[in-house]
Amino acid sequence: MIPSINYNFMNEHFTFIKPSIINGTLPSAIDISKYIKNPLERIDNTLPYICQGGIINFSRNVEIEIKTGDYYICAYVSKGKISYSCQNKIAEGSDGFVILAYKNNTYTLKTLSREATVHIYFISGAATDSYATALHKNPNNQLFYSNHFDMKGFILSGLNRLDTYLASEDESSLFLESIIFQYIFVRLLAKQNATDLLDNSIPVYLTKLKQILDTRYDEYHTLENLSEELKINKYRLCREFSNCFKVSPLKYLNNVRINKAKELLLETNDTIVSIGEAVGIDNTTHFINLFKKETGETPLKYRQSHLSNSSDNTMLFPTPSVLF
After folding, report:
1. What does the pLDDT read at residue 320?
2. HTH araC/xylS-type domain spans which residues (predicted)?
3. How much is the pTM?
4. 8 Å CB contact between 257 and 298
5. Same domain assignment for residues 87 and 211
């Protein structure tokens, strides 16, 4: 049976289309044992307040209709692949996929992999209204906002702590929940601002070049091979990219690699050698020297200094240099 603490809310907001609920029994393919109702009432309508949230695990393909009502939904996919749709807009995403759904709408969630884990939270509050309004200004976000985020380890660390606070009856937990969610919304806005920048009449080949450097940083790149791939003269490519993004393509690539290395240093136990290789720098000495030049610390020192104050080797809030 659906746990009594969830039943009324689930019945109001979730319609299980495939598989369906039979005689009030939730299909075994859907596990909501870690999905709970906040035991505390909101203090006021100022801060983000989570009414219900946590982890839902799926062990087969499912289809669910979700009515948001008076709440926003913030969802994060930590495993598997899903699609999310409203009217004529459909978005698909896998690990690291984030969705913000607006109030008073109906959405359809489908899992596209046999197994999936989705963190889903129903949120309200004036601050949440402000964040959602800022995202909604973009024409692409009229029905909902979706995007993919790196730094999975950091986000899961924050969500795990959020779930711990959500289960607590200590009133201070309400403020801690709010802090975590406002941090998440700020990241959404920062990501959106970066997307907006690329939407403003930047030539397609520059957008493509930036995408290559952002996602294929582990590959070997030269201006010559980038020029050949994009069919643009290398001098023109370098000049126009530098004018647009205020940094040369290869310098930008180094920045991407160093930021990714920071993430791996803090969220994995991988060796310095393997991290250098993972970000496209096979020469370990060169990797260490480049990292120190950009950050002022060697990779090992960076890892030690940033994790030294954390008893469980996790950080709820990455430093600004890691975030942006």
Report:
1. 40
2. 207-305
3. 0.67
4. no
5. no
